[in-house]
Structures are given as C-alpha cells and as structure tokens.
Write a structure and sequence with these properties.
By secondary structure, this protein is an alpha/beta fold. The protein is 35% helix and 24% strand. The chain is built from 16 helices and 19 strands. The strands form 5 sheets. An 8-stranded mixed beta sheet has the order 12-11-8-13-16-17-18-19, with helices on both faces. The structure holds cytidine-5'-triphosphate. Cytidine-5'-triphosphate binds at residues 264, 283, 285, 287, 289, 316, 318-320, 336-339.
Length: 422
C-alpha cells in the first residue's frame, strides 16, 4: 500500500500525528509536546492508555488537540475503526513510553487502542521513554528497545536528572522541545539512521571567554545552539557523545556527556583529552583567537587624568589546525566551522586548506544572522572537493547533513582496527 493510498490523502495535506501517551507521571509533559505539534500545523490525535488517564484526563487531551480522544478499541467503532488511526498517520510518537508499553510494542501485543495503533501504523514511529533508572537499565527493557530499533522505530535516549520523588538518574523524559525536534526530523527524513552506533564523537560548542580581570572578559556572541544540535542528533544516531560546552545557557542534551569550560585553553585541554579515543571531532565552538596578554588579579580601575590603558593580546593555539595536523587517533575525522561576514565561499575554501580539516561548515554571519537563532543555512566544504549546500532551516537539519557527510567518510570498523594496529 502506498503512503498516499494508505493515508487517504496526498502530500500537502495537514500532516497527521498520533500522540500515544502511556501511564507515567511525565504524561503531563506530553501536553507541551501536543501544543508544539498543533501550533506547528499538525493534526494530532491523542491515544492515551487507560493508566495515562490517571495522570492527565481525557478533557485536557481533547481540548488541546481539538480532536476526540478514545482509549478503547471498541469506542466509536462506527466512526473511528481502530485500525484507521494507525493507517492514516504520518507519524506516531509515544511520550512518555513506559517500560510496560515498550515491552508490549516490542512483542506485538494489541491489548488496547495504542498498541493496536502501533501495529497498524506504516509510518515512522518515535518512542520517548520515561521510567526509573533500574527499569531502563534492565536487560528486558534494553532488549525491547534494541528490538524496536532493529525494526526501524526511533527510541530516544532518556535524559538524566531528577525522577519522580527524590530519585535521580537516567530515565527522565527528554524535554518536550527535544522530542518535538526529533519528530520534525523523522517526518522530514522518514527515519533516523543509527549509523554512528559504536562511535565516539566530540563536539565543542559555545563561545570562549578570555578574562581580563576578575569581572571582565573578551568574549563572543555564540549561543552554542548549533553545537548542541550536533550533540543531540549524534546521540539520536547512536553515538557516544562528549560535548565540550563553553559558557552556554542551554539544557544538557539527553544522553551526552557535557564538559563545561570557560577559556580557549580549558576548551583545548578538554577537547584533546576527549579526542584520544574519538572517531570524529567537530569544532563548532567560537574559540577566541587572542586572549589578554596579562590578567589583572584586581579589577582594573579607570583614572580620570589618564588615557585608557592599551590592551595587549596574546595568540591562542588554533585547536582545529592542531587536531587536523596531529590526529590523536589514526583515521579520525576533523570538522571545523567558519563564520564569515563576506566573500563566504572564497574565505571558506582558503580556511579549509589552511586548517587542514576534512570538512568545513561555512555560514554567513552578521548582526542578525546565525548567532542565537534557531535556523541556519550553510555550505559544507569537503577536503575532497565536495560542496554540499544546506538550505535555510533548523540547526538540527544542518547537524544531520554534517553527520551524513561524516558517516560516509568514516573508515569501516575492520579498516579502523587495522589502522589502530599499524
Ligand atoms: N578554532 C579553533 N581554535 C582557535 C580558533 C578557532 O579550533 N583558536 C576553530 C573554530 O572552532 C572553528 C574554526 O576554527 O571550527 C574556524 O574559526 P574562525 O574563527 O572562523 O577561524 P580563524 O582561523 O580564526 O579565521 P579568521 O581569520 O576568520 O578569524
């Protein structure tokens, strides 16, 4: 059955999303996901399990979605045959997905409307698990997750943090904004490959600050959003991710190890340490080229009768060039970013050659572009002469293109092992 025939509508119609909600305290966060989905133009049918309704009632789901809500296979059989909900969907997202729901989905049970929907859906399916750490780590859950992923479903890694009550650990439902972003990517691409499974990637993000005295620094306007998008998308594609974050104010991406740093020297130390066993290093951080030559231990005071003191600068190491010239691991790929204000491609090509990296993501910046924004547009230049244009769109889309290009260039495992030995 083709998608058009199965859905009964053609591309261009409002995309139809089924939001499955299973019974966990995080069900209330699905309201925020639902709001994001409807506000961005999706027609959402909410299918809560019976136990989900203990946490958030039917009236809330139906008011927020603008659609009727049913939980049982035998509700409204004449109007909404249960098989049609799954067949008509362009995406099914289950958030939160409890250990029990994952188990039932993995085993193909069909004992309520949500599991029936999962069996009849032929569109991409996303699960956003939430449960206690022990339940997530249990071999049964891990095998169920592996089964679902093998069949093509996207299972998002849970976040680490406060769980119900005083417990903390891995098992928290990722931020609704993050789940929404995954849904958007899955709908755009059909699925998310797990082509970085078993790989360690290091991403630097944010902007360094070079202290002048205890209260002042030289800094830049980088928000870190592009680096965080790279980290999030790499986690989703199966990588182990180390995110070296310089002065960012963003929520930790679920599943990434975050190493906070302040200065260029600290960022260099953290990146080189993590790069030792990394398959890829992506330098998305805006690293200061210069630092104040001297640090004043006490606050610099102005003197009315004197000229302002000159600001002497010292050069920071170019981490990207250093990593590219002397790869900590044989076969390692190195990716750089270049923010340019004019003559973008020419400067980008020259920079790629100068830095010696494998890929350089070049984007144009100015007063109102790129920095701090949600969207980005860029060209990715390859040392092999390739040139990939990435149209204006979410930073996640640019991140996915970077990972596509990286995955295509990574040495195969056998090849890598022989390089390691040799
Ligand atoms: N970079 C780095 N170490 C530095 C400066 C920059 O690793 N000390 C990296 C950035 O993370 C980015 C790339 O180099 O990936 C490009 O940075 P950019 O500042 O645009 O390049 P520069 O070499 O500083 O060139 P320009 O003369 O345009 O400032």
């Amino acid at each position: 059955m083709t998608r058009e025939a199965g859905n009964g509508h053609t591309a261009g119609d409002t995309p139809r999303v089924v939001l499955g909600v299973s019974g966990g305290i995080a069900a209330y966060k699905a309201c925020e996901l639902l709001r994001r989905l409807t506000e961005s133009g999706h027609d959402v049918t909410v299918v809560p399990t019976d136990s989900a309704l203990h946490f958030v009632g039917e009236a809330t789901w139906s008011a927020l979605s603008g659609n009727p809500v049913s939980t049982r296979v035998w509700d409204d059989v004449h109007e909404v045959p249960h098989v049609r909900i799954g067949q008509h969907a362009d995406l099914v997202v289950v958030a939160p997905a409890t250990a029990d729901l994952l188990a039932r989905a993995a085993h193909g049970l069909a004992d309520d409307l949500l599991t029936n929907t999962l069996l009849t859906a032929r569109c991409p399916v996303v699960f956003a698990p939430a449960m206690h750490t022990e339940m997530w780590e249990h071999a049964a859950t891990q095998e169920n997750v592996a089964t679902l992923r093998r069949r093509g479903a996207v299972v998002i890694e849970p976040a680490v943090g406060r769980l119900t009550g005083v417990d903390t650990g891995k098992g928290r439902l990722p931020d609704p904004a993050e789940i929404f972003e995954v849904c958007r990517r899955v709908m755009a691409r059909g699925t998310l490959p797990r082509d970085l499974e078993g790989r360690h990637v290091v991403v630097s993000a944010g902007g360094t600050r070079e202290p002048l005295d205890p209260v002042r620094y030289l800094g830049n306007r980088s928000s870190g959003k592009q680096g965080y998008a790279l980290a999030r998308t790499a986690v989703a594609r199966g990588a182990r991710v180390t995110l070296v974050a310089a002065n960012t104010a963003l929520a930790d991406p679920a599943g990434a190890d975050v190493v906070p740093v302040g200065t260029a020297a600290q960022l260099r130390e953290a990146v080189l340490k993590a790069a030792g066993d990394a398959d890829v290093v992506v330098m998305a951080a805006a690293v200061a080229d210069f630092r104040p030559a001297a640090y004043a231990a006490a606050k610099i005071k102005k003197k009315d009768d004197e000229e302002p003191p000159p600001l002497a600068l010292a050069r920071n190491t170019d981490i990207l060039a250093e990593l590219s010239a002397d790869r900590p691991r044989p076969g390692q790929l190195v990716v750089g970013f270049a923010a340019e204000t004019d003559d973008v491609l020419a400067h980008g090509r020259a920079k790629l050659a100068r830095k010696g990296c494998d890929l350089l993501v070049v984007n144009e910046v100015g007063e109102n572009t790129a920095f701090g924004r949600e969207d980005n547009e860029a060209v990715v230049l390859g040392a092999d002469g390739s040139e990939t244009a990435v149209p204006f769109g979410p930073k996640e889309a640019l991140a996915d293109t970077v990972w596509d290009l990286v995955a295509a260039r990574l040495p195969g495992r056998a090849e890598r092992n022989s390089t390691d030995r040799g």
